[in-house]
Each structure stands twice: as structure tokens, then as C-alpha cells.
Write a structure and sequence with these properties.
Layout (H helix, E strand, L loop, with lengths): L28 E10 L3 E10 L4 E10 L6 H7 L1 E2 L3 E5 L3 H16 L7 E5 L14 H9 L18 E2 L2 E2 L1 E9 L2 E10 L13 H4 L16 E9 L5 H17 L8 E9 L22 H21 L3 E3 L2 E3 L4 H9 L1
Parallel strand pairs: 5-6, 11-12
Antiparallel strand pairs: 1-2, 2-5, 3-4, 3-12, 7-8, 9-10, 10-11, 13-14
Length: 338
């Protein structure tokens, strides 16, 4: 089993993680994957985030918009997340969206659904034009979604992804902020090797091509990252947006800059208010502004650590375009120690 950042003594930030150090530390959230690896050039999949209590208040943030996350106009209009979230490759957004609709119709018998589905591009390692993600893969991810530890690295939507010139993929982390928990899950497929920093250490400069080979196509800064943020705090949609904005600072701390060719999209949702689907007038809770600061710190730290965990969990992979090497944990510890 690959080590995570904390297993290597790398403790990012000041706040403590939750018991699982994962998005699933936010009670009532399940994560599932379907991973597709076939032959020499199929390296893809789908990941789903399933909140058990929907709808909940939510809001997105766009750091750079060369990417896709469906359903956001309704999230902005209503302030609500109403379906599970799918994350996959760029060309499979449509099939994942349709399959989530079908799954929701089966489960709720409601005829109206507008799912949130996000993507990053895995075409370096994967035959992306082959459209290998199918509806049954989405059903598999939903049916196997679990509230326990989250599998990271080369799984689900992250199977064929590249991060800061290393093998990337799915990563997760969490933080306890007073009475509340903040959890983050990323699909990391972004960043330039030379810019990578971990806890302020210029790791990327130290681990150049002479120590760990660069990917077959090194277009520095190209690619994308999807960040899903959840919290138990009673936030309203405007406060969810403020939380989503701060996740971008976590991307920046690791060296991501929202480059022109990158799709850096964030969605934050809060489970601290219930009964939002009723037909009668209802009351909601809302944190005072100053009580948001610990949540801001939490999401920054958890986003940075989730990105690092994605790279550490990923294994070296050979696919359609060649070989992408992992971030070697021993070399990382050497650099961090120095």
C-alpha cells in the first residue's frame, strides 16, 4: 500500500485531520470508483461522490475555465446540490451525466434531474477518443460507493491523470475546524513539475528529469484539477462559494496557477442544514462571518494535502503515449529533509 503524506512525516498546515483524513470524514458522504484498464491504451474510469442527504446548499468557483462541470447554472441559481457528483475524463461527461440521471430516476422516481459531472483530460495515457466509460461503469461506482477510507491514485476518474509531471489521480484529505469537519477530494491532472511545492519546499526543482523522467508530453501547466469540498458546517450558498474560493489557495500552494490551458473547477457543499426540499417555510442556520476563518484554513490545508496524496498513491503507469512515473516517496522524503 502506498504511503500518504502523513505516513512520511509530512504534516501540512496546523489543523488536525479527521479519523480517515478523507472527504468521507464528513458524515453521510460516500465515494465510489469504477476503474477501466485494458490492453495497452485504455486507462480511464469514473468516480462518484454521493451525499446521502440531498439537496444541500452548494456553490462553485472557477479558477480557470478550460474545463467542464455540468449543472452549475442550476447550482448558482438555486444554491443547491441536488444529485450525486460524477468525475471522469473529458470525452465521457455525457455518458456519466446520463447514467446518473437514470440512476436517480430509478431511485427516486422523480423525472427531473440535472447532475453535476466534472472532467479532466487523460488522453496522454488513455485512448480517450475510444469512449470507454459506459453507463454500467457509472452504476458500478454508485452501487459500490462507501463511507469508509477512499482509495486514491490510479482509480476511477483519476486512472489516467498526470499531476505536476508525476502520475496523478484521485486524492483526498480532511481537517477538523472547531466543531466542524471539512473534507476535500481532488482529481489532480494539472501543474508544471518545476513549480511543485509541498509545505513551501521547492520539490519540483529538486526532482527534475535527471532524477524522475518527465511525462511523454510535457506541456508545462496544461491539464486540469477538479476539487470537491464538503463540510458539516451550517453554511448558506454564498458562504459555500467563499469556501470554494479558498480551495484555490490550496492549489496555488502546491504550484498550480490556473494556467490558460487548465480547467480548475471547484464545488463546495455544506450538510449543516436539513429539510431544504420541503414545501413549507423553514428555518436555516448560518455561521457568523468570523467563524468562517477556521474553515478557510481547513480547506486550504486539505486541498494541498489531497493533491500530494494523489501523487503519492499513484503508481507508475504505461499507457497509450508512453510511461508516466510516480512521485517516489523516498526521494520526496530526502528532498523534504534537506
Amino acid at each position: 500500500m502506498s504511503p500518504r503524506a502523513r505516513d512520511l512525516g509530512i504534516e501540512i498546515g496546523e489543523l488536525e485531520p479527521g479519523p480517515l483524513n478523507a472527504l468521507t470524514d464528513v458524515a453521510g458522504i460516500r465515494v465510489g470508483h469504477a476503474t477501466i484498464v485494458r490492453g495497452e491504451d485504455v486507462r480511464t474510469g469514473v468516480t462518484v461522490v454521493v451525499p446521502d442527504s440531498l439537496p444541500c446548499f452548494a456553490a462553485p468557483f472557477r479558477l480557470n475555465g478550460n474545463g467542464e462541470m455540468t449543472g452549475l447554472e442550476w447550482v448558482r441559481e438555486s444554491g443547491l446540490l441536488t444529485t450525486p457528483i460524477g468525475i471522469t475524463n473529458t470525452f465521457s461527461v455525457g455518458v456519466v451525466r446520463d447514467a446518473i440521471v437514470e440512476s436517480q430516476v430509478r431511485a427516486t422516481r422523480d423525472r427531473w434531474h440535472l447532475p453535476v459531472v466534472a472532467e479532466t483530460f487523460d488522453g496522454v495515457l488513455n485512448d480517450i477518443a475510444g469512449m470507454h466509460v459506459q453507463r454500467d461503469h457509472v452504476f458500478e461506482a454508485i452501487e459500490t460507493a462507501d463511507a469508509g477510507p477512499v482509495v486514491e491514485g490510479n482509480v476511477g476518474g483519476g486512472t489516467g491523470m498526470i499531476c505536476h509531471g508525476f502520475k496523478g489521480g484521485i486524492g483526498t484529505a480532511s481537517r477538523i475546524a472547531g466543531d466542524y469537519t471539512v473534507g476535500v477530494l481532488v482529481q489532480a491532472n494539472h501543474g508544471a513539475r518545476s513549480r511543485l511545492r509541498i509545505e513551501g519546499v521547492a520539490v519540483g526543482r529538486e526532482l527534475g528529469a535527471d532524477r524522475i523522467p518527465l511525462p511523454p508530453r510535457e506541456d508545462a501547466g496544461s491539464g486540469s484539477i477538479i476539487v470537491i469540498v464538503a463540510t458539516t458546517a451550517p453554511l448558506t450558498p454564498d458562504q459555500c462559494e467563499r469556501l470554494a474560493v479558498r480551495a484555490a489557495l490550496g492549489i496555488g500552494r502546491t504550484g498550480g496557477a490556473g494556467e490558460d490551458s487548465s480547467g480548475d473547477l471547484i464545488l463546495a457543499f455544506a450538510t449543516g442544514n436539513n429539510g431544504l426540499d420541503g414545501t413549507d417555510v423553514f428555518s436555516i442556520r448560518r455561521l457568523p462571518g468570523r467563524q468562517l476563518n477556521p474553515l478557510f484554513y481547513a480547506v486550504i490545508e486539505a486541498t494541498e494535502e489531497a493533491i500530494v496524496n494523489a501523487m503519492l498513491a499513484a503508481e507508475t503507469m504505461t499507457g497509450r503515449g508512453g510511461t508516466v512515473h510516480r512521485l517516489d516517496p523516498d526521494l520526496l522524503v530526502e528532498v523534504m529533509s534537506r
